[in-house]
Amino acid sequence: MRKLKVYEPKEIKTVYISGRITGIPLSEAKRNFEEAEALLLEKGYIPVNPMKNNHDPDTKGWIDHMLEDIGGLMRCDGIFMLNNWQQSKGARIEHYIAVEMDITVITKL
């Protein structure tokens, strides 16, 4: 029988926000991320909002955005998944990376 790996709780300071951007109006995506950012600040976290990395689809391609976003994620202690994250290929990739890299996943605050 395999033994489960036991992880010690760690202090979470910086939290990356992940959710759907592509396929919804940019204004809606920005609002969702801004609301999450405010909530994280209120709870005492340091939020990392990838929408502040200029997610205008006219300036860069999806892969370029993902490369920047994954770099931001890798510098965080946790990742906060917005309610719509499962409808986003990019957010599912970020979730997978977080799980594999032992970054704490937060789904509710």
Automatic annotation (TrEMBL):
Q: Which SUPFAM superfamilies match?
A: N-(deoxy)ribosyltransferase-like (SSF52309)
The record, for InterPro entries, names: DUF4406 (IPR025518)
- Its domain of life reads Bacteria
The protein, known as: Uncharacterized protein DUF4406
